[in-house]
Design a protein that fits this description.
Layout: H1 3-11, E1 21-27, E2 35-41, E3 46-54, E4 62-63, H2 71-75
Antiparallel strand pairs: 1-2, 2-3, 3-4
């Protein structure tokens, strides 16, 4: 993903702190308007999961993992 695209992506995600790294983006195989993105903030001491979904070609993003959901606990 080009740097400009990653920067634009993180700016459209609500409640995501600036300077968050884009870990991955996965496009849906079934709906061209749907994609998923994960962000990494461990370098800032933030170990919470930041995973989002868009259904409008990236104009808006919704968190799909609630903070405190235990997702991180399941991975350890």
């Amino acid at each position: 993903m080009p740097e400009k695209t990653g920067r634009m992506l993180s700016e459209n995600v609500p409640e995501l702190a600036k300077a968050s790294w884009v870990s991955w983006v996965e496009a849906s195989r079934f709906d061209p308007a749907t994609a998923y993105a994960a962000f990494d903030r461990h370098t800032f001491g933030d170990m919470d999961p930041h995973v989002y979904k868009t259904t409008d070609y990236g104009k808006t993003w919704t968190a799909i993992v609630a903070q405190g959901s235990g997702v991180r606990d399941m991975l350890t």
